Amino acid sequence: MAGGLTIERVDACFGAHIHGIDIATIDDAVYAAIRELLTEFGLLVFPSQHLTLEEQNAFATRFGPLEFPAAAITNIAPDGSVLSDQANDTVKSIRGNEGWHHDSTYMPVQAFGAVVSAEIVPPDRAPTGFADMRAAFDALDTAAQDQLRTLSAKHSLYYSQGRSGYLPTQRDDGTYAMYGYHDKETPVRPMVKIHPDTGRENLLVGRHAHEITGMDPVESEAFLDELNDWACTGDRVHYHQWDVGDVVVWDNRRLMHRATEFDLTNPRRIWHTRIAGDPSTEAADNHRLVS
Q: What rounded mean pLDDT belongs to the chain?
């Protein structure tokens, strides 16, 4: 028990289900307990909450300013039809997210985390995977840790979606209308991130990472692929099986996550509220403000 909450560990070295709470009515003391649990576990699952979008955004705002309010991640078109055509830009985005990643490392400021809720769940429950990059770094030998501390890599949605074959349709001016395809300098981030709340070291890799500084691009890609595959294994990984009404919160500074493939002829809709990162700790090396 913590602050009247019941904690149930998941089948991994991180993460917990939290029971005995109504997120929509928590006070400051309960929020403080939740924030401590998020720092400890990295992933918190609150079953059967059934929040409105306003309640979800209000809960997310307790953690800090929003990068964006609740947005639908769905294969349901505005007219109610179900999208399954692999050439559709929405489907391309869904499929691209099946690769392990941190949110918004491709933006000047990496996200703090996210609050996500499930409204419509397909029969196979379309699980979301989470992987602990703090545990992954701790599992490396000393030589590998020392090497990684010296390395940085670019992070780009153009790279990750392009490599997987899921870039959206270009507009007439050659740009893309979807979120994350900005025209700013490609962010460069260290491959070992110091977590601002714990002081612990975490791998910072994922599908958006590429072109390690000073390394041949082909060698860099192979190095990152091997590292990503190794990091996201064993008890460092947990897959959340969604039920309608579930709310999940995770620390994007510590965990990677991924969607899993599901039958796109079945409708699915989850709502993602992204919590903005603190520019003083989450800005890319080449996007830090000079005082």
A: 96
Please tell me the distance from the alpha carbon of residue 208 to that of residue 164, in angstroms, as a whole number.
Answer: 11
Domain membership of residue 70 (yes or no) is yes
Domain containing 38 — which CATH number? 3.60.130.10
Domain that holds residue 191: 6-278
Percentage of residues of the chain with pLDDT beyond 90: 97
Kindly state the tokens that stand for 161: 């979606």
Whole-structure pTM value: 0.96
Residue 289 lies in a domain: no
- Asked if residue 23 belongs to a domain, the reply is yes
CA distances from 52 to 59, 136, 245, 246 (A): 11, 36, 10, 12
Is 288 inside any structural domain? Answer: no
Backbone phi and psi for residue 165, each to the nearest 5 degrees, phi listed first: 85, 25
- Determine contact, residues 135/201, Cβ cutoff 8 Å: no
* pLDDT of 1: 46
How many domains does the chain divide into?
1
Q: Is the pLDDT of residue 2 over 80?
A: no
Please name the amino acid found at residue 250. W
DSSP one-letter string for 204-238: --STTEE--TTS-HHHHHHHHHHHHHHHS-GGGEE
Q: How far apart are CA 14 and CA 81, in angstroms?
A: 38
